[in-house]
Structures are given as C-alpha cells and as structure tokens.
Amino acid sequence: MSFVSRSRSALLGTVSSQAFTIIGMLVSIVSTPLMVRYLDKEEYGLSILFFQVIGYLALFDFGFGPAVIQQFALHRGDDEHNQLMINRIMSTGVYAFLALGLLVSLIGFFCAPFVPGMYHLRADLAEVAVPIVFTLSVVMGAQFLQRGLGGIFYAHHRQTLIGTTSFIVNISGTILSIVLLSQGVGLWAFVYSNIFQVFTTLLVQVILLRRYYPKLKIARIHFDKPLLKLLFSNGRFMFLHGLATQIILNTDRLVIGKVVSLAAVTIFSITVRIPEVGLSLLSRVTENATPAVMEIVTHESSDRAREQYRRVLLLTSTLGTLAFWLILCFNQWFITLWVGPSFFASNLVLSLALVLMVQQTIVRSMSFFLYAKGNSRQLSLMSLFEAGLNIALSVFLGQQIGLPGVLVGTLIASSLTSSWYTPYLLKKYLAIPLHDSWSSILVPAAGISVAGGVVYMFVKWMQVVLPNTVLVFGLLGCLAGVLLAGFTWLMFLRHPFGPYVPARLQRILLVVPSS
C-alpha cells in the first residue's frame, strides 16, 4: 500500500470513528428512555455495574492487544517473509488470547458469588446476578479471541472496514436489547445482546480474514515463544496505564453502588452521560494526531516539539472549556426532556463531572507527548498510585457526602498526582517549560469562562421566559453553541489554526490570509 493510500485510509478511519461515536451517542439517547421504561432504577443501575465489571475484565490482556497491533503494523507486505511473520503473529496472538480469555472467565467465576452480598441486592436481583456474571465471564473470554483476530485490520489501515461492521453489529445488539426488554426478559436481555454481538463479530472477522488474507494460517507450528515474550514485554506499561485509567474514570459507579445505592448508579450515570461522551470526543483530538506527533518528538528539534505541544494543548483546553459551559447550560434541561427530572442528580454533581472532564482531557493531552516519546514507565507507575488513592478517597468521601464525594475524591487524587507530575516529566524529557503548559490552559480557560458565564445566565433566563419544549431547547442550544464557538474561534484559535483553514473558507471564518 502506497503512502498516499495509507494516509487516505487512516484519515477515513479517523472520520468514520468520530462519526460512529456521535451516532452511537444518538442511539444511546434514543435507547435509554426505552430501557428505563422496562426496568426500575435499581435494575438499570445493576445492568450498568455488570458492564463496568466487563470493562475491568477486558483489561486483563496485559497490554497484549496493542502490542500485537504494533507488530502487525511492521509487516504489511505480500512477500514470503512478511506472510510468515503475519502467520506467526496471528498464531501466537490467538493462542495467547485464548489463554487470557480462560483466565478472565475463571476470575469472573470466582467473583460472581460475592456480587449479591457486596451490593446488598434485593432477592429478585440477587437471584439473577450470579448466573448473569457467570455467563458474561464466558462471553468476555470469547471476546478475547475476537481481539486476537481483529487486530490485523487496524494495523493494516482497514479500520473503516472492521469499524463499520462492528458498528452495525453493536447497533443491532442495542435494538435486540430493547426488543427483549419489551418482551419481559429483564436483565438477561443485556446478556443475550452481548452474546449476539460477540459471536456475530467473531463470524464477521473470520469471513473478512478469509476474504482479505487468504494465505493466513493459524497453527501451532507458527506459535513463537520469543515473540510471545516480546509482545508481553512491550505491552506491560500500556496495561498498567490502561488499568489505572479504568480505575480512575470508571470505578465511580462501583463505588456508588456500594456506598450509596443501585438507584443512585442509574441517576449518576444518566447525569454524567454527556460529559463522558465529551471526554471521549475530546480525547480523539490527540489520538488523531498520533503519527505526526510521534515523528516530531522523535526526529525533529525540541523547539518544533514545543510548538506542537502548545498548539495541541491550546486546542484541547479551549474545546474542553467550551464543552464545559455548553453542557452546564443545557444538560439538566436535556435530561428533563429526555427521561424526566428525577434522573438528574444535581448541578453540583454535573459541575464536578465537567471539571473532571476538562482535567482529564488536559492531562491526557500532556501525557500523550510522553508516550509518543517512549517515556511511559514513570507515568504508568504514577497512574497506578493515583488509581489507588482515587479508590480510597472516593470510598471515604462517598460515605461522608454521597454522590459528590465520589467525584471530589477523583479530582483530589488527580490533583495530587498526574496533574503536576505530567508537566514535570514533560519538562524533564522534552524540555517543555511549565510556563508553556499553564499559559496554554489558563488564558483560554479564563477568557471562555467569562463568555460562558454570560451565556449560562442568558440561557437560564430564557428557560424561565420561554416554554419548555424540544423546539425551544434545540433553537436555544444552536444559538448558544454558535455564540460561544464563534467567540472561542475568534479570540483563541483563529491565529494559531487559521493557516490550516482551506482558502475558500478563510473569508467566512475571518482568517487573515498569510502574505
């Protein structure tokens, strides 16, 4: 594949990934009211916890998945050597993933009997919880095989191909869940949907492998022990960082279910749904810049790396602050129209979730440059320490002050660890002064917050004056979005990013043409 073709494929994969994320969010918006119609708050909260547990079990590939993709990326050719290496990587990966899948299933079997007592489930929920966790553990084990077969498509720039099929299967699974819930299946609806998604995806992957890699052979003869050791060695710090990230961002529901209630899990999850989607979309800004940043920090001057760092951090901090104010303006109103006011936790919980969204976006943008440089060990170890501190503080503060305490614990843990340690490592390894970090964050955050505060008061006043309808919500949302986005572009993004705007759009976006 030529350089141009690879670039086009990578760009198409990025665009399709963003599109699928947005469409998935819209599907979630439509499906959630239908789900809560058939489940009470405790049942829906328990279903959320089930998939939190699945998220933890999914981490037990020990960074093996990204390492396999990295090895596949080194062997794209059709010659005999590359074909042999692809067979070795695939065979080694599949056998390793089968073993890891078995390990995950055993962990799930061991933990399942403790679920009812841990969350003090009422009798009808306790009756189904254990067999559901047993079943999901087996399904999760099968999902590891899915990772082993699917990595080659991402490595060889066929993200759109595998991403599109996975997206269709996932949407079909959501529809199946709603249909089964409407038939009175209860929590088992999510299990059957998950089984459908995993095994349908496996079937699709096998078909695509036979279509695009007809010479591929998975056999014991191709299993390579030295390669296995290399893959685990390369992936261990990715695993540590992934584990820490999962704990930092996704333990909150497990803690809330333990120290508050399952109903509180439902209310919390719906309240923070949009901030979490915002964090996911903001994270794609740095993910999309991966190839360019890796090349710059590895092969170009430190001044060039500093310039790109300031630019990326400026972009993520401005977009994060913009998202903060827009979500703060409209999230409660949206939830009231969406599922009803009883599913909104409080403005305090929402504000804390939004602060966490901005904080994590900025820290991820900083740490991204360290991983691109190859300095992952110290940051991964600090992330693990942050994860442990996060659990301790969230449990303690959650017991003391309820839902807000869980988020406050996460924010304090991050402030005491990664929020200061990441800029320190950037200064140490990339010679990026602390001033570059703080100036790229504080100046746009302060400016946008002034405008955001004005828009917030305007929106709240209009809510009192105008009728509470979907049409009014949509029109006012568009108006506020255009005003804040226009202010952000003109004041903070037009100058550094104007040169990248196509010539035909420069006049519309008030970009001064370069001489």
Automatic annotation (TrEMBL):
List membrane-spanning regions: 12-36, 48-73, 94-116, 128-149, 161-181, 187-209, 312-335, 438-459, 471-492
Q: Which domain of life is it from?
A: Bacteria
Q: Is Hydrolase a UniProt keyword of this protein? A: no
Q: What membrane topology was assigned to this protein in its record? A: Multi-pass membrane protein
Q: Does the keyword Cytoplasm apply?
A: no
Q: Which Pfam families match?
A: Polysacc_synt_3 (PF13440)
Q: Which UniProt keywords apply?
A: Cell membrane, Membrane, Transmembrane, Transmembrane helix
A GO cellular component annotation here is: plasma membrane
Instruction: Report the InterPro entries cross-referenced here.
Output: Poly_Biosynth_Transport
Q: What is this protein called?
A: Membrane protein involved in the export of O-antigen and teichoic acid
Q: Could you tell me where this protein is found in the cell? A: Cell membrane
